[in-house]
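Many introductory courses stop at the sequence. We go one step further.
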Amino acid sequence: MPRLFDPHIHMYSRTTDDYQAMSKAGIEVIVQPSFWLGSPRRFVGTFEDYWENMISFETKRAKEFGIEHFTCISVNPKEGAARPLAVEAVDAMVKNGYLERDRVVAVGEIGYDQINELEEEIFVKQMNIASERHMLMTIHLPHKNKLKGIQNLERIMNDNARSNKTKHDSNKMLIDHNVEETIKQTLEMGMWAGLSVYPITKLSPDMAIKILAKYGTEHVMIHSAADWGRSNPLSVPLVAQEMKKSGQFNDNEIDKVTFTNAIEFFKQSPKFTWNP
């Protein structure tokens, strides 16, 4: 059985049956970024309750099925435009020490949803918080107009390089939800690229395999991004199987995008305490 790592999955919205199936399929470790819960929040306390649930309860729930669980804490892009709530939630995230908690390996996911100034304010604020703490970041490309999202990120990086603020380290940034029109730019900026294999709205296994065949397996990782929607928590083993069947990849290349690349990225965090 292959050893597998899903570096982006929202287990808050999944069942114990999913955990059991993931374990049986060979998934040994997962990272759960913060995401939108399906309806607008009204209080800062709901963010804190959610972060606490991921850090404490989900880690315990995963362990019951032999899966190591780590988290990324943030105000998600879809919630970034809410004022004053998003600003207050980011302040609470810092003030109340959530980024210092065990198994919090990154700030994320952060980025764009509708691509507007309010979202960008919260995005940049959280990027600065991560860099000041030498933390990893998981960055969300928008569901629509991904190319503009990656172009805006390049502008932010350039602005940061010219500023007197703590510099962003591109090697500590995982850009998720890449497609063929964004992955080249992601990799050229020295960042890590996530491919979301998610039925209907993101990539199919075939689409992901075509991207891997064209751009290679260095600094790229497959994940499910499974959540409330019509998603598959077994996307990582599915892609591993389909890569093998395609005959285009050797075992080492398959292992890279479904296991070792994710380890190489997240082990940059001292909070990533799992040893394969």
